[in-house]
Amino acid sequence: MKRGIVLAALAAASVLAVSTQAQAQVSADWVRAHETFLAGEELRGRGSATPDEAIAAAYVAAQFRGFGLQTAPGMDGYLQKAEIVRLALKAPITLAVDGKPVAGATLLFGDGKSVEGTLMIAPAKALSRTAPADVLLVTGDQSAMQVYRTAAQMKSARVVLVRESAETRAMTERLGGSPRLPSYLRGEDPGARPSLVVLPAGAFDALAKQGGTKAALTVPITESTSVTTNAVGWLPGTDPKAGVLLLSAHLDHLGVLADGTVMHGANDDASGTTAVLELARTLAARGKSKRGILFVAYGAEEIGGFGSTWFGAHPPVPLDQIVANVEVEMIGAQDPKLPAGTMMMTGYERSTLGETLKAHGALVTADPYPEQNFFQRSDNYSLARKGVVAHTISGWAVVPTYHSKDDTVANIDIAFMTRAIQSLVEPLHALANSDAKPEWKPGGKPE
Ligand SMILES: [Zn+2]
Questions:
Q1: Is residue 324 part of a domain?
Q2: For residue 340, how far is its CA from the centre of ligand 1 (angstroms)?
Q3: pLDDT by residue (tens digit) across 236-249?
Q4: Centroid of ligand 1 to alpha carbon of 383 (angstroms)
Q5: Model pLDDT, residue 434
Q6: From the CA of 209, how far away is ligand 1's center (Å)?
Q7: For the sheet containing 183-185, what is the strand order?
Q8: From the CA of 428, how far away is ligand 1's center (Å)?
Q9: Using one digit for the tens of pLDDT, what is the confidence trace for 412-426?
Q10: Which of 238, 302, 381, 393 is the most exposed place for a label (fewest CB within 10 A)?
Q11: Which whole number is the average pLDDT over 117-127?
Q12: 250 C-alpha to ligand 1 centroid (Å)
């Protein structure tokens, strides 16, 4: 059934291709067509690393092919797949102190590792000065979350024991009974972080007098895997030494919630994926530029930026050849804080990319929400951390439909999107034909 849907959408799309290819203008019909497919009922919210995400990636790949894009260097198709490993509990944890099990111990967060060592006791206010311990019981009335963050940052302990409180009960409820354990890309080091274990008040108070005894936390782990898919298209340049532009978005969203609610993600980020598709179509129609252009729709952004991280670790061209990355995220609504028709660029002041695009007519301006750290919160960051001048262009980043069931095509401003994407075509075309290389400004490059 799903396959039939994809084919029908592709057929509809190719009819549009014939009528608009000649003008190579961004078209509201195309924008609506892509949005309607990607954020429609059938794709069920494009859950990260699900078969629905894979269908979205196949759709994007088929469009790339239809626009005449090639497969990227070193790739034998338009899809790049990566395996995500998720850890989960297969049985309740056990905590034993001095050989005796402690009833009611609950794991909230951790790295999934079992730990054996000596139980140490420290007051919360001394946590930053405490020598590293295997198992550390933290006394005092500080917030458990704050204790955990400090312990993780200071590497104070491998296991942190805290006393049950209204805060920990709320946290347990939010987690729905299963602890938050790492997900990571197969082949990557998931890293170490402490386990946070909550104890009932009575057990906690008894253990607070048992410092120096042996303690063992056993975490029975099961591993499940899923596959995420990036769609990658390539418009070769005429000058291999001129470098490459990377235009990207993420194609996944939150999928179907446990209660059956479909999270459509029309804005987040079917809108960015649509932008990448329209930029691919219009730029491909202009023929080859000096610089090659990579068009990428990443999978699994919502669960930790896995698609872009994988791409950054396995790029089809060396990362130092990528002269700029423009990620497009949530351009489905206009920010009322910004002048009519304009988008914002995260980290605008960090590099010369934003002003270069703006000088050629891009409807972009600085991010009015620096306190939200949006620069660090999208797929551009995976590459920015590796030195690539990489920014995200967004519409209304704090839109009320953000991560809600109301993020649907009905709530998308197709006219704004169309104009916004159109405003990027000429500036990107100019950048693709330029010798000028966007640069980080002093202090702008992330550490
Ligand atoms: Zn999102």
A1: yes
A2: 24
A3: 999 999 999 999 99
A4: 18
A5: 95
A6: 46
A7: 183-185, 79-89, 221-235, 292-298, 244-250, 322-329, 390-394, 343-345, 364-366
A8: 25
A9: 999 999 999 999 999
A10: 238
A11: 93
A12: 9
The residue from 167, 189, 219 where one domain ends is 219
Question: Whole-angstrom Cα distance, residue 219 to residue 338?
Answer: 50
Give domain status of residue 149, yes or no: yes
How much distance in Å is there from the Cα of 302 to the middle of ligand 1?
Answer: 6
What is the pLDDT at residue 6? Answer: 46
Question: Could you identify the residue written with the tokens 């082949």?
Answer: 187
Q: Which amino acid belongs to residue 165? A: S
Q: Residue 326 falls within a domain, yes or no?
A: yes
Distance 303 CA to ligand 1 centre (A): 9
Residue 371 sits at φ, ψ, to 5 deg, of -65, -15
Q: How far is the CA of 330 from the centre of ligand 1 (A)?
A: 9
Give me ligand 1 centre to Cα 384, in Å. Answer: 19
Domain with 173, as residue range(s), is 92-219
CA of 129 to the centre of ligand 1 (A): 38
Amino acid code (one letter) for 127:
L
Strands 115-123 and 133-139: parallel
pLDDT class for 2, splitting at 50, 70, 90?
very low
CB 439 within 8 Å of CB 352: yes
Domain co-membership, 186 together with 240: no
Give the C-alpha distances (Å, rounded to integers) separating 380 from 59, 204, 232, 315, 353: 23, 44, 16, 14, 13
